[in-house]
Design a protein that fits this description.
The chain is mostly helical. The protein is 42% helix and 8% strand. Among the domains are: 331-377, no CATH class; 383-484, Arc Repressor Mutant, subunit A (Orthogonal Bundle). The termini are far apart.
Amino acid sequence: MPDSTNQIAPTNVRTRFAPSPTGLMHVGGVRTALFAWLVARQAKGQFILRLEDTDKKREVAGSAEHLMNSLKALNLNYDEGPDIGGPFGPYRQSDRLDIYRSWAQRLIDSGRAYADPYTADELQDFRNQAKADKQAFLYRNHRPQNPPVWDGTTPLRFKSDPHAYAWHDAVMGSLSSGPEVIDDFILIKSDGYPTYNFAHIVDDAEMKITHVIRGQEFIASQPNYLNLYDALGLTYPVFATMPHIMGESGTKKLGKRDGAKDVLDYIHDGYIPEALINFIASLGWNDGTEQEVFTINELVEKFSLARVQRSGARFDEQRLLWLNGQQIRLLNIDDLEKRVANFWPEVAKSADNAYRRRVLELAQDRLKTLADLPALTSYFFSEPTVNRELITTNKQLAKLSSEEVSQLLGATADKLNTLADWNPESIQQALNALLDQTGTKPGILFSLVRIATTWAPFSPQLNDTLALLGRELTLSRLNLANQQSLQ
């Protein structure tokens, strides 16, 4: 049984991401690209983008540009690709047709490829007969005795040499198959375009790819690929098969209907690249420790294909949201200031830059996404709109009578008005003293004061918020809320 002994350990690591431009960039594609990028960066090798655009019926206009923009938005910069070129271009398969014909001719000359003379109806008859005989359909059972010379108007098929295989996968381990799964597949279609089965092997060889990282859906075709590698006399690259990403329930493969968005939609919604990369890296991989939050440099340093799990990884949107908040906190304020430029509420855009920066410094620890910025900061720049549901839907505050609300707000205004220094420390001391004075729990008093001064569902630390709002505005809002009676 042939094995992967002709699979060598590469010294100059070259990985690739080779999507088809047939739609948007979803999490499964991002993970494949990320793992290939990490392997290349860790080895100080090259990461290549190649567009596999030979299925013209499924190609979507604008998809190629979208794929490139998605990688760049995630900072997964490639060293060679369709828009930047490189020594092994072109990097679009539709521009490489002469290369495929040349390799196809090598197979024809060695007796390992032949023209397919059958019509679609004849092929269907073969399939129907196999079904009637309760046998798997294999084209090689109908291989023509004297095929015509291939002139490009009919499909060109690979003349397989079926036998058992054993090979090593960097993720899945030792794998094997029998000869019954190997067949005479199409190399070049009648429209002149190569099939994926042929083109990707030619491209990987021409581009000196050392690691082929792809999804689990291709594993059933691996014996056919190995058979073609052997026919072409090629050394196997390192194979690494990624397990499926499962939906929230963990019972089925993640699909578009399960809520996973396009990667640029996540960016538009205020998720930052570091969080998306951190989250996607953890879908099926860990470094063997309890660490959950990784910088990009840490991922490059610690990543290993050997630690990618073989079973499916569950997509957890809430964990992504948590990681996004954690990664936002790691940003320095200058970097964060640049990233939130398009997320500020309209009322903040004309504010003093220094004041706006102070607001951002205060809000940073509470941001889950950059898109939370308006809800978290609008009340620093304009009078908030009263939302009594914040009181009535709060289990503790809803129990208070109008008189109790008024008493607490009045006592708070009186206490804060006596402060000699208006800063977070003195404000916190006053609020703590009010707890003893009123016999109220923090969850009641602090929540009431926060709502009355911000009318927001959440806000930064209360004492810091009041300090930045200032004495005059804080007291004014407390008194107004008291006058309006919150219930």
